[in-house]
């Protein structure tokens, strides 16, 4: 077997190594997933006090970082900013991957994966999680339709089913309608994901209306950043990806400006939480700003998640420097993921007693188990692999291709973007 | 208005709109109705007298036996609640069966639902195990079956024998006010709260009679009378969940155990 | 005419249809429990209540008819019917026939209703029911009526497991090894000060004083061979109780009390084992959050170091050049 592999892949190119590493992580993830389905959630470190942990963070982050899809498609097809269409194309594909990652991690996380379809059949219209599930399912359909023209790029598909491929490409004609649907559905569920936490009056750390707005905002910022970052990284790594740097710089500038109100809202939210003592909320804030989550919060979320990228992306010098731009965007993405992690644990790590009298607050702890980490890495590896394959075979990051297709899109994408 | 302009199409449109409006009002009524517990013939409530509770955990064990729960998944939890007049006091916490239960509101498949006698029921067949209800409960009344409870239940048969099926892996569970005993007792013509066979197991197991159960709709039931005569409180009343478990605060005079013989 | 493949598929279709039909018919069987049986021996009860039967079998109630000590004493006394009133179920003195040997289910769960399990068996936890056999003055049930437990409407089954005819064990929390730890389960207040007392140090536990299980006395540690003698269930210690151990110190001057304190073991008895404290529920929480991880500090230090290095780099480089030039200079001088 080794001989056969060696014949097929005579030299180990970086591409093969990359695929191999991802394949290994996928295998680990698959093994952990099978273990979870077989042995149940008892092998995780989730407890009755911390019922949501790493996988929910991955799920929330995947959905948040897929927000580039709806926002860029809305910008292109509804606001008429046609020149950003190549970027919107990349974002749509990332969106599709992100939502599938979210579905995967949810399958792992729910206690009865065999009953995942119940959410579509049994409705409780009061539940925010129901609303999120419905919107996510519908939006996934929208994303699949939006991604059809991208998937139609697959050479094998074009040869085998030319008629179907032609139909798939024709879906692009309906892009504006899909963009409207995507915008509405996305705004609904991106904010509802924040509200899932925000309506729990049992948890004062979360019980506030701005959770919805903050989740929406951070998703916007993070989603667009991930799209640009992924485009730039692929362009650096492979000649198959071609980008128009001016376009990306413009979008990065926009991200920089978005980070200003984002920082403002985060600061306001944080300061508002410090006013008067409320059991549960004040301790949660302390856990997040002074306790076990403090480094994650101050360094990853605020300093490197918002302040530094804001400065880097607003200053022309650093924005035009590709390295600093990529660094800033990666920091934003990391900040969004850290935000989801901190919010989730900040609420669960603090246990408010229900006993009468003076409210006593106690603390619990959580660190994901190996199985959780393994399965999480598997999900992430799936996403990376899907994106890598898309770049290589579907021209997902190809600004020149889009320019060829649409005369209206004037885009000059040089061969590759080298450092 | 001339009828000539009112075509067949217009008639159909009008009828459709009218029907939709009627259907819409029905939906609104249903939507509002399920945001809090509907009022039925009975309204079960429990009263726990902290003066009498010694923290012996007989209620916990009876519940564990009758509902076949795993020892680490107690539905009824007894905690220390400080000292009053030199006597230790305890709080036993079953599910509060809230009138405005956060768990019912957040359940995405409606596996948690209200019964019209006030009990918050769990449909273990619908539940997908997302644990949103667990996160939402202010009383930590729900425990999740991280694994299936296999093997012998240590509380059986000393404290009772199981009366309901064991829950499968991957669903949360909680105290159900022994609705199965209540329903069966009503069928047999017994009175829940008076006849032990129709009353939750924890109430019957209490050696000091600290737990009382009954129908709030019945003015003469034990719980109605007790609540009329005594000061009572509910847990986390500030959250306005409308719990149906009332507590009589510990009275040090009552707790003095000098036997006057 | 038919190819092999077609023949195989037709055969498969028939086979599947037959199997499916059989499955449907088989699963349509009535899965309801068997029809209720009329009153009978305990064998019928055990068909559904095997748990209770197992705990009953090994206990004193289960052995009441077969116990060799009882049988010998009974035969020695000429097999009097009076014994069978309690030692058999449903003994009819007129005919001399019992419904069943020993203390069986129907001894307490009578009368059984028709259509059990549709109707419940009677469960009477009152003292009167136990008292039917255990009310004899040999069992000191009049003492029980004096106790605060009885006066607060408690029953025998608060402490005793009627099926195993033993003590309740509070299993699932801390299994009580003996009666004293069961007392502690309810009387938690009493355990505030008692463990540090001289009595506790000497190995005295609840039952020694409150149930008349005294050491060093004539009726020390109830001999279970004489099962008709039950300890004093009034739980009220009297002067008699103190005197069981301290009779020699009565009226003695103060100092000698401590000096003459008796250790239970020395007096020839065994002290009851350390009672295990029974837990009330606690959540797995701490009062302080988990400490801030050193990894965070290390990361921050690294970042600060990186930043400092970047800022100081030009000066450090100048310094390095100066030093190395000096060094070179010195070397040249040496040569």
Description:
The complex is a heterotrimer of chains A (419), B (261) and C (335). By secondary structure, chain A is mainly alpha-helical. Chain A has one domain (16-394): Up-down Bundle (Formate dehydrogenase/DMSO reductase fold). Helix content of chain A is 72%, strand content 1%. Chain A has helices at residues 2-8, 14-39, 54-65, 67-78, 85-109, 118-121, 128-151, 155-160, 162-170, 175-198, 210-237, 245-274, 281-289, 294-314, 316-320, 322-348, 370-393, 399-405; strands at residues 350-352, 361-363. A two-stranded antiparallel ribbon of chain A has the order 1-2. In chain A, helix 3 packs antiparallel against helix 5 (85-109). Chain B has 261 residues and is α+β, with helices and mostly antiparallel strands. Chain B folds into two domains: 1-33; 37-260, Alpha-Beta Plaits (2-Layer Sandwich), CATH 3.30.70.20. In chain B, a hairpin with a 5-residue loop joins strand 4 (112-114) and strand 5 (120-122). The longest helix of chain B has 26 residues, at 8-33. The N and C termini of chain B lie far apart (96 Å). The model of chain B is unreliable at 28-33 (pLDDT under 50). Chain C has 335 residues and is mainly alpha-helical. Helices cover 46% and strands 2% of the residues of chain C. Chain C is built from 16 helices and four strands. Chain C has helices spanning 4-27, 42-48, 50-57, 60-63, 68-76, 81-87, 105-108, 127-134, 141-146, 148-151, 179-186, 198-201, 206-210, 239-246, 254-259, 294-334, and strands at residues 88-89, 100-101, 160-161, 166-167. In chain C, strands 1-2 form a two-stranded antiparallel ribbon. A two-stranded antiparallel ribbon of chain C has the order 3-4. In chain C, helix 2 packs across helix 3 (50-57). Chains A and B meet through helix 7 of A and strand 2, helix 3, helix 4 and strand 6 of B.
């Amino acid at each position: 077997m080794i001989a056969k592999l060696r014949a097929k892949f005579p030299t180990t190119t970086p591409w093969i190594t990359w695929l191999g590493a991802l394949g290994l992580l996928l295998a680990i993830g698959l093994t952990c997933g099978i273990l979870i389905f077989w042995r149940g959630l008892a092998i995780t470190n989730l407890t009755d006090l911390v019922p949501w942990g790493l996988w929910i963070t991955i799920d929330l982050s995947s959905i948040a970082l897929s927000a580039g899809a709806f926002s860029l498609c809305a910008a292109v097809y509804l606001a008429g900013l046609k020149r950003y269409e190549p970027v919107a194309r990349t974002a749509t594909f990332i969106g599709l991957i992100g939502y599938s990652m979210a579905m995967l991690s949810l399958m792992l996380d729910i206690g009865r994966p065999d009953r995942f379809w119940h959410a579509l059949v049994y409705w409780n219209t009061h539940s925010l999680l129901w609303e999120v599930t419905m919107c996510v399912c519908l939006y996934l359909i929208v994303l699949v339709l939006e991604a059809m023209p991208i998937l139609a790029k697959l050479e094998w598909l074009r040869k085998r089913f030319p008629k179907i491929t032609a139909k798939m490409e024709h879906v692009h004609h309906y892009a504006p309608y899909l963009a409207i649907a995507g915008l509405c559905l996305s705004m609904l569920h991106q904010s509802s994901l924040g509200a899932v936490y925000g309506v729990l009056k049992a948890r004062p750390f979360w019980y506030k209306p701005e959770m919805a707005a903050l989740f929406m905002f951070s998703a916007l910022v993070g989603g667009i950043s991930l799209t640009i970052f992924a485009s730039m990284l692929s362009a650096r790594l492979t000649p198959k990806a071609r980008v128009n740097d001016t376009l990306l710089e413009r979008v990065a500038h926009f991200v920089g400006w978005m980070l200003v109100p984002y920082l403002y809202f985060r600061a306001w939210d944080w300061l508002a939480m410090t006013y008067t003592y409320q059991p549960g909320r004040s301790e949660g804030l302390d856990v997040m700003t002074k306790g076990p989550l403090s480094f994650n919060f101050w360094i990853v979320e605020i300093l490197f998640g918002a302040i530094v990228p804001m400065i880097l992306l607003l200053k022309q010098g650093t924005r035009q420097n590709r390295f600093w731009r990529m660094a800033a965007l990666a920091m934003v993405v990391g900040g969004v993921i850290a935000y989801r992690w901190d919010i989730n644990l900040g609420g669960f790590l603090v246990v408010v007693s229900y006993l009468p009298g003076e409210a006593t607050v106690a603390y619990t702890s959580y660190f994901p188990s190996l199985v959780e980490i393994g399965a999480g890495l598997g999900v992430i590896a799936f996403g990376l692999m899907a994106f890598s394959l898309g770049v290589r075979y579907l021209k997902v990051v190809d600004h020149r291709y889009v320019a060829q297709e649409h005369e209206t899109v004037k885009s000059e994408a040089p061969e590759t973007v080298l450092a | 208005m001339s009828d000539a302009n009112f075509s067949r199409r217009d008639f159909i449109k009008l009828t459709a709109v009218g029907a939709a409006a009627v259907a819409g009002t029905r939906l609104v009524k249903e939507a509002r109705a399920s945001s809090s517990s509907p009022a039925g013939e009975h309204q079960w409530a429990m009263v726990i007298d902290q003066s009498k509770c010694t923290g012996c955990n007989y209620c916990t064990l009876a519940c564990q036996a009758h509902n076949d729960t795993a020892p680490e998944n107690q539905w009824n939890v007894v905690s220390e609640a400080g000292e009053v007049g030199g006597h230790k006091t305890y709080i036993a916490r079953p599910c509060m069966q809230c009138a405005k239960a956060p768990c019912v509101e957040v359940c995405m498949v409606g596996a948690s639902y209200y019964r019209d006698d006030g009990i918050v029921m769990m449909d273990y067949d619908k539940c997908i195990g997302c644990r949103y209800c667990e996160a939402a409960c202010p009383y930590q009344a729900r425990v999740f079956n991280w694994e299936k409870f296999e093997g012998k239940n240590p509380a059986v048969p000393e404290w009772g024998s199981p009366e309901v099926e064991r829950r499968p892996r991957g669903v949360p569970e909680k105290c159900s006010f022994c609705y199965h005993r209540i329903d069966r007792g009503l069928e047999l013509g017994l009175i829940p709260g008076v006849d032990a066979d129709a009353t939750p197991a924890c109430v019957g197991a209490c050696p000091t009679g600290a737990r009382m159960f009954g129908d709030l709709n019945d003015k003469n039931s034990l719980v109605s009378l007790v609540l009329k005569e005594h000061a009572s409180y509910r847990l986390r009343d500030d959250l306005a969940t409308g719990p149906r478990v009332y507590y009589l605060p510990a009275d040090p005079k009552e707790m003095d155990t000098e036997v006057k013989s | 005419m038919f190819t092999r493949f077609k023949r195989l598929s037709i055969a498969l279709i028939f086979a599947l249809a037959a199997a499916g039909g059989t499955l449907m018919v088989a699963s349509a069987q009535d899965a309801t429990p068997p029809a209720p049986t009329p009153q009978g021996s305990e064998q019928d009860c055990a068909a559904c209540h095997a748990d209770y039967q197992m705990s009953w079998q090994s206990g004193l109630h289960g052995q009441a008819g077969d116990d060799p000590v009882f049988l010998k004493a009974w035969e020695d006394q000429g097999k009097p019917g009076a014994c069978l009133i309690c030692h058999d179920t449903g003994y009819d003195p007129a005919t001399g026939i019992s419904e069943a040997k020993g203390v069986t289910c129907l001894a307490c769960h009578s009368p059984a209703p028709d259509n059990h399990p549709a109707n419940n068996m009677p469960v009477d936890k009152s003292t009167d029911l136990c008292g039917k056999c255990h009310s004899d003055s040999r069992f000191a049930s009049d003492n029980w009526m004096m106790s605060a437990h009885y006066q607060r409407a408690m029953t025998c089954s608060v402490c005793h497991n009627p099926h195993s005819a033993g003590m309740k064990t509070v299993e699932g929390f801390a299994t009580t090894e003996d009666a004293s730890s069961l007392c502690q389960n309810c009387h938690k207040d009493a355990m505030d000060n008692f463990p540090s007392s001289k009595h506790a140090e000497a190995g005295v536990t609840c039952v020694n004083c409150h149930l008349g299980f005294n050491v060093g006395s004539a009726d020390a540690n109830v001999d279970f061979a004489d099962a008709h003698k039950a300890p004093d269930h009034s739980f009220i210690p009297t002067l008699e109780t103190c005197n069981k151990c301290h009779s020699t110190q009565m009226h003695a001057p103060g100092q000698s009390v401590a000096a003459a304190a008796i250790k239970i073991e020395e007096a020839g008895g065994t002290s009851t084992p350390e009672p295990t404290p029974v837990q009330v529920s606690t959540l797995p929480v701490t009062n302080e959050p988990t400490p801030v991880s050193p990894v965070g500090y290390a990361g921050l230090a690294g970042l600060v170091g990186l930043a400092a290095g970047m800022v100081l780099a030009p000066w450090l480089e100048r310094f390095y050049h100066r030093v190395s030039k000096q060094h070179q200079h010195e070397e040249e001088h040496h040569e």
